[in-house]
## 1
Amino acid sequence: MTAIPIRFFVCAAALSLAATPAAGQATAAHKIIFDTDFVIPPQDDSFALMLALKSPELQILGITTVAGNDSMERATADVLRVLEIAKRTDIPVYRGANMPLLHEKSDFAASVHGRWWSDDPPPAPPGGFAEKPAERESAMDFIIRTVNANPGEVTIVAIGPLTNVAMALRQEPGLAKRIKRLVVMGGAFASLPDGAGNVTPNAEFNIWVDPEAARIALRAGIPSQLTPLNVTRKTRFSKEWYDKIVAAKTPLTELVRERMAARFEKDPNAGGQMYDQLAVATLIDPTLVTSADLFVDVDANRGPSYGTTVGGRKPWGGGEGAQQMSVQHDVDFPRFINMFVERVTRK
């Protein structure tokens, strides 16, 4: 692809029946840190958060923001406003990295999707800036403190560049062993079907923004699952699903209407892939997807393959540090989208 599709399409979720425990059984909620390059709807991070907020299987301990789709400052302002609209200001928000570890702005970066390099003041979200500010503690310190206080219990859901995760791992020796799981939306794998990139011929946006951080995080030995472009290319959000969502008339769905109505009025055939939405959904219900266990590494060498994820069934020369993890490549889309709509439209 020569241009990145706008990453706004609604977050998918797991089928509620599949995610519901049998009678008499109790399932503890996943304790998660929601790490995000958030932008208010129609971006996909915001829909992924709506799904998480409406899913009792997930307990959001905090939200950490990072530069990616836009600046870290905009991510912070927008997520605070969405939490205010959702009446969930009990969830704390922590500012993270405002730039990748090493990747600097280039003419190419400025010409494609994403404003991770921006230092412009964030625009006011719909309805104005939230009354509640972000916490004073940094995202990295919050990640370290929370994981250390809950060893083996906290899953990091990383749906933006992995800068915050990498910085926390560098700052705190032994942290990787105390993280329960790392759920990542990112990557594209030539060894699986539909493996092309969306920002360069082989690189996916989230990984490409900070390949050095992705390499650190994915080599750390944390049990990990990846939702790459291979599987998101099998999803599509359309006006049919938009109409079902905005018919519910909740504060969040009214925000969706306000932000997306003009797009569908202009082009009723508008639609696109679902990215971060699927990553969140498959934490709730892993049976939504088919996965392969691959050894995964990231090319952090400057050149035509910068930011490319590489996956193989066994280690290879040059990829000796690659770790084995679950990589998704197919999805039961009808279950996925129906459950998402049911969750997001809950009162």
## 2
Amino acid sequence: MRIIAISALREFWEKHPIAEQPLKEWYVKTSRARWQSLNDMRADFNSVDYVGNQHYVFNIKGNDYRLVVAVKFTPCLVYIRFVGTHDEYDRINVSTI
């Protein structure tokens, strides 16, 4: 998958250094994937959930952080829409960001 907006991950782990390694692991695994469906995503990440409007939520670092992406399966694109703490996540409309 081609991942768009990795700078969002970098900015987040600069503020939350403990999230750096788990986010890098997510990036490496995702960039090597060729997902065609949610089932393919769950084969790599069992904690991923579909929240509507082509948006998916990943639990990062044992559910300490949340990562929201929009996935376009046909062109193999993953757009990073949000990365944050649970408190920050609770304040967004995840399907429209």
## 3
Amino acid sequence: MVTLPGKTDMRKMLSREELDHNVACIKKQIERFISFEGENAAIIVNNADWLLDLKFVDFVREIGSLFSVNRMLAAECYKQRMETGLTFFEMSYMLMQSYDFLYLYNKYGCKLQMGGNDQWSNIIGGVELIRKIGKDDSYGLTFKLLTTKEGKKMGKTEKGALWLDPNKTSPYEFYQYWRNIEDSSVETVFNMLTFLPTTKIKELSSYQDEKINESKKILAYEITKLVHGEEEAKKAEEASNALFSGQGSLENMPTVKVENNNISILDAILLTGMAPSKGQARTLINQGRYFFK
């Protein structure tokens, strides 16, 4: 059972149709990494199938009575929300996620729940819930999240998340994201998201100044190849080379049509979403990240 990392903003309420659509899209995205066919095939399920039919009184009596509000409020995921406001729905999220683990444990024999380390409290909630019903063979496993040097989750920008879905984040934009990460994050990202030998990673991560950009190109290509396939990775690489070094084809680079002929360069960059602010746009231009003709 894989739990996606939590959010710091209010969770959007979705209709059943939206939930089903999201599950189908998620399955399509992860088919590149795991198989849903053949021997030992993976199973993808939608927790709406069991959560939407729960009766409130029955749920709080049978499940809610096993949770301590004092202990829940001590969890980091709730501490962060206490200052901005914590709704009852948000408060109950740990109960629902814990119940998910219990349901999958009973129905499919699922004994391990994995997720980002920001999900530790919710995962432990599920483990303890299963143990409270008399079972002691459930476990939780968390893994390190990718963060910037400021400690913010990577992939979160003014534009929104970095999506695996090519319809939300094109392979070119995906490639460019990793091509432009901070120098200090190169080794961490290589280790977490590629299968290159550690000796090669050490070498690529040791480069300084302009040479580190060559390492970032390799990094961007390797991650894009894993997520979108080698063909799309080559197209993204070629488009990037054409844009920034004048070599290759621009055919696969996303384009935006601007109707206003009098718009400034900085406003055009903001309009296309290439930078979240004029200040950052100026910095990127000065660094040679953008050129215009």
## 4
Amino acid sequence: MTRDQYEFQDPRTQYPVLKAPEQSQPEPGLDRDLVPQADHGEQSYRGTGRLQGRRALVTGADSGIGRAVAIAFAREGADVALSYLPEEEPDAQEVVALIEQAGRRAIPLPGDIKDEAFCERLVAAAAEALGGLDLLVNNAGKQVHVERLEDVTSEQFDHTFKTNVYAMFWITRAALPRLPAGASIINTSSIQAYDPSPGLIDYASTKATINTFTKGLALQLAERGIRVNAVAPGPIWTPLQPSDGQPIEKLPSFGEQSPLGRAGQPAELAPAYVYLASQESSYVSGATLSVTGGSPTP
């Protein structure tokens, strides 16, 4: 699935149309069990030193977008603390190895970010191991497709908001006393914030919340010299999709509704996060960078 991200080419065919077989994984899903395999930039991402010496905490760093971001940050010169669920350890260890191959430090920190106390320990452990924090990427997410609202359980609603919104709040709050002027916070939103699918009402609501949280916090932190931005992905091929994120029967055509006619790969998201983390975006705060395969956002 790997493609050269630096070669001039047609974006419609840079990656093949997915045509994934019907498949199912238990939550939270593993990259190693994804068919076809996703591209996180393992073979293609080339760093240029844009994050040299930075210290990053990335949630959901074992798979999908978080994995691609962790790899890119390391190849740009950052040390990376990885947050993930204990059951995602096999994927996380692969990311640890890739970060170390890039000559940077990888700090694996498994645990459940739905727990406030763990979020506080996570930030403290990351800052201690890395000698501080400069970059925070709130990326971990929960998405479960349920056709009818009356079938969404209170437990699911609660877990989706705790994973996607509460954890972002808890982790950011704990990180702020440790973030110096020049630091960057990047939150993962979604096309769902603007164009919600009927079966993803709870998930879409959290993503709209993330947009507003990002804009408000950017205004609050401007006087401290800390930038806050978001990235809004479109349909990206990650373990989130076959682990109840999409109906199984829709997986073979996943992403084909985008204007570019295909699903995106995590590797195509990483440069957006690198840009927002780097000094190249020094005048960008309160923005949402959409990476949606051409689907318009406000």
